[in-house]
Description:
Radius of gyration: 35 Å
Distance between the termini: 71 Å
Number of strands: 24
Structural class: alpha+beta
Amino acid sequence: xxxxxxxxxxxxxxxxxxxxxxxxxxxxxxxxxxxxxxxxxxxxxxxxxxxxxxxxxxxxxxxxxxxxxxxxxxxxxxxxxxxxxxxxxxxxxxxxxxxxxxxxxxxxxxxxxxxxxxxxxxxxxxxxxxxxxxxxxxxxxxxxxxxxxxxxxxxxxxxxxxxxxxxxxxxxxxxxxxxxxxxxxxxxxxxxxxxxxxxxxxxxxxxxxxxxxxxxxxxxxxxxxxxxxxxxxxxxxxxxxxxxxxxxxxxxxxxxxxxxxxxxxxxxxxxxxxxxxxxxxxxxxxxxxxxxxxxxxxxxxxxxxxxxxxxxxxxxxxxxxxxxxxxxxxxxxxxxxxxxxxxxxxxxxxxxxxxxxxxxxxxxxxxxxxxxxxxxxxxxxxxxxxxxxxxxxxxxxxxxxxxxxxxxxxxxxxxxxxxxxxxxxxxxxxxxxxxxxxxxxxxxxxxxxxxxxxxxxxxxxxxxxxxxxxxxxxxxxxxxxxxxxxxxxxxxxxxxxxxxxxxxxxxxxxxxxxxxxxxxxxxxxxxxxxxxxxxxxxxxxxxxxxxxxxxxxxxxxxxxxxxxxxxxxxxxxxxxxxxxxxxxxxxxxxxxxxxxxxxxxxxxxxxxxxxxxxxxxxxxxxxxxxxxxxxxxxxxxxxxxxxxxxxxxxxxxxxxxxxxxxxxxxxxxxxxxxxxxxxxxxxxxxxxxxxxxxxxx
Length: 697
C-alpha cells in the first residue's frame, strides 16, 4: 500500500470517531469502540463472498444432523472462521429501528465460530453494541465501516477491468495503523501509554534480520518454530515468519514455519488473533502438545501462566515491556512482594552442583521491572538437539545491562548467559526510536550454537548513530532504521571485526568479584566524667552500662584504656558482660580511634577473630581479569590507603554487568584557553563599542 493510500485510509478511520462518536462518548472511550469495530469489519468483509454458500451448507449439515460442522464450514469460507447468521455488517445497516438493529447485530455476533467469539468477548464488542445503541450511534458506525470508500479486507478491491481500486490491507499495515490510532487517541487525551505495547515496523524488520540472516546457510528442509512471549499484535512473529520463508525460497529450501506467542492485554491479543487468522499465518488456532490442546497465541501473563509450558523453539524474538512491575503476577500465585523468594517456576531458577553441594540459583529480578523474567523465559526455551539450536533476539532498555548487585536475580541471569557462552552480541540502538519513549534500547543476541570464531567472546556494537530522521515525528519517535541502516548493522554483526563501532571482548571482561572489604574495629575508652548514659528501652542495659562505668572509675581511676584492658578489668571484677552486650559497651562508653588497638570478637582473647567495623566496611568490584586476582587488587588498590584492610574469601560473590559508555564514550575535546580568551576579548570589545554608542562617547 502506497503512503498516500495509507494516509487516506487512516484519516477515514480516524474521522469516524469525530463524525459518529463526538458528543455521545468521552474522547477517552473512542479507541475502545473504533479499534474493536475495525477488527470485526476486517473479519466480516472476508466472509461476504461466501455468505450464501455457508448458509446453504449449514442447512444441509443441520438436516443431516451432522455434529462437527466446523471443518466443513471453514472449507467453504477458505478461512479458519465462519458466520452462520443470516446477517453481514452491510445487510445490518439497512435496519433503521435501533432496537431491532441491536437484536440483529447480537444475532450476527452469535453466529461466529469459536475463535471469533473469543475475539468478540476479549474486545467487549457486545457491551460496545449496547453503548452505541443507547447513544443511537450503532447504525451510523456500521454505515461508516462498510463504506465503499475504504477497503479493510486482506484482498484488493478491483474494478470491472481488473484494476485495483483499493489495495489489500495486510497484517503489517493493520499493525501500523493500530499503533498509530492508539497513539493518536492517547495523545488527544494526554495519555502517556501510546505505543507501549508495540514495536515500530522498521525495528521489527531489524530483529527478524538479526535472527535469521546470520544462520541463513543453516536453513534446511524442515519445520521451524518462532516464539514471542510478549507478542502484541503479532508483528514480530509474522515478519520473522515471512523472512525465513523468503530466505528458504532463495536457497531452494522447502520449510514450514509455525508461530507461537502470548499476550496479556485483551484487545491487543484479540487484534493479533484476528490478523493471524485473516492473513493465513495461522491455519488453526489450536494444536496438540503432550496430549493437551493449546493455542498458538495464548492469552494471559507469560510470567505467571506459561501458555507454552515445556516447549522449545528455534527462534525467540521479543520486545518485552520495560520498567513494568510484576507484582500482579505474584498476587496470582497468592504471594506478596515480601514473599518474592517463594515464587517457584523452573523457568526462573536453575539447580547447580550435586549432592550436598547442590543449590538453587534464582533469576528473579527486582519487583519493579519484569523484562529480565521474559529473558529468562526465552532462555528456558532453547533447543539443544539440532544443528541450528536456538537464536534469541530480545529488546531491552539499558537497565538490563547492569541492574542488580552481584548475587541478585538479574546479575545471576547475566552470569548464566555469559558463563555458558550464550551471548553473541549486544547492539545499542538510537534514542527516540520508539513511539512513546526517548530512551535508548539494546538488542541482545543469544544463541547456543555460536560460530567457532565467536566462542568465548562477546561483540558490542554501537549503532546509536545509525538511523534515518523522520520528516515528521510519530510521538517520541523521530528516526527509523531503514533498509540501508539495517544492512549496515547486519554487516557489522556478521563481519565480527574490531572497528570504532564494533568491539570484541572475552566473556570474562564483564565479570567481577564483589568483595566486601573490612577494617578492624578500634575502640578507646576515655574520660568517663563526660559520658551521659542513654535512655534505653531495657532497664537492664542501662544498669549494665552503669556498673561498667562505676568499675572503670573505681578500679582504673577513669584513665584512658583500650578495649582489651577494659574487658580484662571487667573480667577480673566479676562483672559479667554477655557476648550480646559487648557491642552495647563499645557503642555507649567508647569511641572509635584509628590509633587504638584492634578489637576482638572475644575481647579478652587476643587470638580470637578480629571484630570488623561496619562503619568502615566497603564493597569493591574486582574485575575477573585483574592480574593476580583479588589478593593483588587488595595489595595494589586498597592497602596503600588502608593497611589494616582485609576480606573474607567465603563472602566473595561473582557478578556480571556491561557498560557501553566504558567502551564507546568519546569525551568532547575542550577548546584551547587561547581561543576562549580571544572570544572573551572580542565580546568585551564589541560591548565597549555598543556602550560608547549609547553614551555618545
